[in-house]
Here is the input.
Amino acid sequence: MLKVLSKATIALALAAASCMTTAADLKVGFVNTERVLRESAPAVRAQKKLEREFEKRDADLKKADRQISDLRAVLDRDGATMSEPTATTRSASSATSPASSSATNGHSART
Here is the structure.
């Protein structure tokens, strides 16, 4: 019985040693899927295409924003000396200037 137990212990020790050798050869990797999706060639092409598509819209919005700011500055500066109808007209035109019209003239975002 002692010989059988001794042989079983030796076999178990050898099996454990071989498992440790196998575990040392085992490599575990990590894939950053967010980075892969962001930096892959199709993703880069799609991002550039979207940037080109929305470039003009962005420029139009920035231009409209500058125009509104300019109209508000004129109204703030000259509003006290303007007649009431002129001030009301300018105030309304700054509220409905190109920014709101660009949203309704076909420049809405596509989904």
In short: The CA atoms of residues 68 and 97 lie 7 Å apart. Residues 99-111 have pLDDT under 50 and may be disordered.
